[in-house]
Amino acid sequence: MRLGSARDSEMRSVTPQDLLRRGAELEAAGEWEGAEHAYREADEMQDAEGAILLGIALKRRGDTAGAADAFHRAEMRGHSEAASSLGILLQDTGDIEGAKAAYLRSIARGSPNAALNLGLMFADQGAVDEAVPHLQSAERMGIPEAAYVIGRLLEGREDLWGAEAAYRRADAAGDAQAAYGLASILLKHNDLEGAREALTRARDRGHAGAGAMLEVLAADGVVVPQAMSPADNLAAGEAAAQRGDWRAAAAAYQAADDLGDAEGAYRLGGVLLDVERDPGRALEAFIRADERGHARGATRVGGALMDSGDRERGEAAFLRAHERGDAQATYFRRSCCSRG
Question: What CATH fold (topology level) applies to the domain 230-336?
Fold first, then answer.
């Protein structure tokens, strides 16, 4: 009796935080099964974070139904990001209406990540009027990347003054793509000096195409006209997506990607993953976006690497995205990369 009582006492002394730390240690060692077991025990102790991490572990090994159930439990326990995580899962599996409902529940709890994700989902569908209000909410809640997306959507509608204002807000927060987008607007306004300054900021922040554009400006003082600029191709892609012509959308995004545009590569990856169900080519596109300084591209790369078990490179990708201001990557790093 005394031995049994001692064992029971020892088990009761283990807290959910102990199990979460243990899970993190096992993940770091590549012992995924043991980590999942630790998170499951924390979940069974009614811990919301344990349920979230169990959901991530289950998603990693392809158990989407189990992951959805775990995210649901975390949401019922009050985890502020649980419904947003569920929304990502549902969106990735093609359940757009379910994802929308989950994001809206998370937004009601004050999640900026959910507002950004819902806005991006609508933008991917070409639904600009639905996307912008959620992106504006995300920006107000502290995600400057949302202003860049707003700028791109407004530029696609030829609202150049609105796009310029949005790009300037994101540029002021250090976004490389926003600085590049601002330069394209300023060139249309014949503000060559302002465009040079914006391109310099974009180049210094790692935007691959900005340096080449600066060389053109230095050589000729003007930009050599192209049949279609990256912004033109992105606008064409969005219009095609809005009417449901995904083949044309992919072609337009590919054209922007071929011109070295990070957003083009990112949006192409989204079509390849969500519509064509080609994760291999999608990852290649996301890698190109990441290499050109795209924050969400780096997050997508990090998620794919973590799901494949490549923790070290996945963490590095999440760190790049975090440093570029992507709030979702910041959450992922806190959830699965920074414990121990």
Answer: 1.25.40
